[in-house]
Structure formats: structure tokens, C-alpha cells
Amino acid sequence: MTTSKRVALTFPHDQVDKPIVYHLIKDYNLSFNILKANITPEEEGKMLIEISGNEDDYRKGMDFLKKQGIMVDPEKKEVKWSKDKCTQCSACISICPVEAIAIDRNTMEISFDEEKCIACELCVKPCPPRAFEVRL
Amino acid sequence: MSKQIRTIEEINEKIKNGQAVVVTADELIDLVEKEGIEKVAKKVDVVTTGTFGPMCSSGAILNVGHTRPRIKIQKAWLNGINAYAGLAAVDVYLGATEMPDDDPENKVFPGEFKYGGGHVIQDLVDGKDIKLEAVSYGTDCYPRKKLSTLINLKDMNEAFLFNPRNAYQNYNVAVNTSDKTIYTYLGVLRPHLGNANYCSAGQLSPLLKDPFYKTIGIGTRIFLGGGIGYVVWNGTQYNPGVPRSENGVPKRPAGTISVVGDLKQMNSKYLKGVSFLGYGASLNVGIGVPIPILDEDILKWAAIKDAEILAPIVDYSDTYPNLKSDVIGEVSYAELKSGKIKVQNKEVPTAGLSSYPKAVEIANELKDWIKKGEFTLGKPIENLPGPESGIKFKPLNERPIKNGGK
Prior knowledge:
A: alpha+beta, four-stranded antiparallel beta sheet, two-stranded antiparallel sheet
């Protein structure tokens, strides 16, 4: 059985400089796509990745990460869209890199798919009525 | 000019009797395709239009009432945002793009401009209390020098929107050919033609449906921000002489309207403070203009489709800021609304700053008002000047100031 999951990884500051994720490929035969990565001012590393592979390998890989002191959380849906605040202008539509924001070309109405959203936050500030909100 | 079919007076009589036939500009297009101009012209009395987009040249005139003792307000701030007070004692004008004195603006680029004049106007309309601070120098008749109080829209004597330039007849499609992202009043534009942003309701937009201003003029009654308003003058930067397509529709930004309406009637559904990253704050204004079908020509124009309305593609990394006149190309609103256009052989994703669903809502709301007999048509005292007027939108001719300006 293969699986594909999005997880948020939090690296404590003493692990930030180590090539840990690399072991997921080498030792656990998992492939991954980095959706977002940054180091916070507290020197914590945060990474949002989509991991694909055999379910057994996935479980072992996650166990490995936890043993290294890395926090593994299912992806938190961080960006919320307020239909109320949205004026249906579509300024966000060409900014979203993963087509989480869709538009019905007949009515020109906007919709937001939280499942597809990778919480990159690119849409948040360019939205004129600020209808997107980041929730941690 | 085609033969007159009906007069505004006749239409108003029908509206009062609940017999007027009213359709939105969208519905009209379908109707004309099915039945033809001649038949539809006989049947339809009024076509409603709508638009909802950022209209920076907007603001509100407020008379906040006199204090005891009186103050001649010389400087005023509403929720920390400066309102122009160089008028009579307690009249102020709050502009949509004004920012708080202590806003970081673009000092850390791109600035967020989270709360500006447009947001205060929205809060007023939402019935929220607003903080008014004012200062003056004091006179014998107006002795007070300082004021700090909460105010509310419902307590004001007069509060009316007075927008010098709204409802642009057509607008630029903004692109960026440079190699860095730019932040404009038409949104965030990515480098190397990464996206194209437009700002018009196209086939629903009021002035695009009456391209020669045959029915719109001073005194035209309109839907404004959810209430009733009026066209009071041509808008600023009025430019009717731009190139036009064969069907008469301007291919560049052309006509504009100056509008007035009672803020107390308005609704934040149709009046919304907005923020443009790296540019500033503004106000989204909802406007709907009814077009009386007085003859077949007026109907023909009102039935013009997105595919027949062309907008200019303008480079906002160079052409626009440097006031150059060249245009990269022209594209129809049908293409813009499809989500992709071709610019310099590159497929470019499009996005709109003007809300089409809101424009539809406004056109329908205005239609309902007219059908219910709540809204009759205003007969213009003067029509807006057409291309024959020779009016041209001029740049500033800068002249050096010599001898200290004396």
C-alpha cells in the first residue's frame, strides 16, 4: 500500500543544521516534496512536506524523525478564507501556486479548497479586503 | 440617430404602475441574441448595469454637528485618519486613500495599508462609533480649541459620499515586463509577464453600455453603495476622445462620473474598505446605472458583449509610471474572463480587481427596485460631453519657478 501525506515538521534548534530529511529517501525509500520551509527567529526549523511511499516505510520514517527530536504533526490548515469578507474580485486567483483558489468561469465566483491549500500565505496580503487569515 | 421609441417620462409612468420591463445588461445580451434588436427594443424599457471595484477617488462629506462652546475645526482625524477641514466650522471631507499620520506606509516595502479612509467610511456605514479628534486656533465666535469624542453616522446632520471620479469607462490591463515583482493599485504583478490584472465589469459596466453618454448625465439617478445616488458632473480625468472600436466602445480608459449619495442609506455590502499591498488603501464602491431604452441605437449599445469590448494591455513597470503612451496590445473582456490571455506570445494568467458577481448582484438589485416602483429614472439636465466636445485628458505641463515665484 502506498500513501501520500502532508506533514508539518518542527526541528528544534540543535537539529536545524543536520541533513535529517535526506535519510527519509536513503534509508526509508520515501519521496517527498517540500511545500514550505523556514527557520524562525528562535532558530526553530519548520517544514511542510508531502511524503509519498509505502505505508510501512512511511510509519518507520516518521518514527525515525520523532527519535531525532523532530515534532511531526499532520498538516495544520493555516489559511482560512472568509466568504463574508471576500468581495469576489479574483485578485488571488493567479497568485495561488496550487490552485486551492478556484473560480467558476460562468459566474466568476471564487471558492477555496482547504484540502489543496499548502498554507504558503501568498494570497493573504495581496487580497484587497483581506479575506484570508493565517491561523496557527 | 434612430427613431425615438419612448421617453423617460413614459418609462417613469410605467415604473409607477409596476409595468416597466426591466432586464440586466447580462440578460439583455441573451434576449437580443434570441429575439433581435428590433423586437427587444419594443419590449424592454430599462437595462440595468453594475460595477463593484476599487474607486480611489471617493470620499465622504460629513457635518458632525456643533459643540458647545463652538469649535471651528481646522484639523480633524477620524480613527486617527486625517480628514480635510478647510471648510466651514464642522464640515470635513474624508478621502478614501488617506492613511493615519503614523502609518508606516511604504517605509518597510511593500506596506500593508491595513486601515485607511475607505475603512473608516465602511465602519461609519456599519454603524460603528468613530473617534473624532480635532484642533483649532480659536476665534471670538468659535472659542474652543480642542475636541476628542466618539461620533456615529446616525447622529450626524449630513453625511454624503462625494466621489470625484468613479465607474471608469474601460480600464488598463496591468502587466509587468521587468524582472522584479511590483506592487500597484492593480494588485501584485509578477515579473516577466507573470500575470495580468484587469479592472472592469466589462459587459455589465455602466459607461461601457452607453458608450456615447446618450442617456447618462447630470441628474441621472443611480444605485450608489446600496443607496440612491446621483451623477452630478463628469468625473475627473474625463477623456471621451480616445480611440474607439467600430461599435463605438472606447478602447482606452475614457469617461468617468462624479457621484453623490446619502451615506446613511448605504450598506457595507456595496461599500468596502480595501488595502493594496505596497500601494495604499481605497474604497470599493458599488454603482449601478439604469439605461432607458429610448431608441434602437441605445439598445444596440447596451447589448454589446464582453467579446466586443477591448482593453489595452499596459506595462506597469515602465509605461505607466513614466507616463508613456504605448500599449503592448489589446484584449477583449471575454478573453480576460477566460483566465488566460496571450501577451507577446506568452500565455499569461488573468485576475480581476473588479468583482463580477457583485456587479451582477447590483444590476439585479437595481432591477428589483425599478420593478417594485421604488426607483424612477432621473432625466439628465445635461448629458455628459461626448467625443465631439474635444475634451482631452492632459498631463501636467511643469514650468520652472523663477525669481522665487514672484
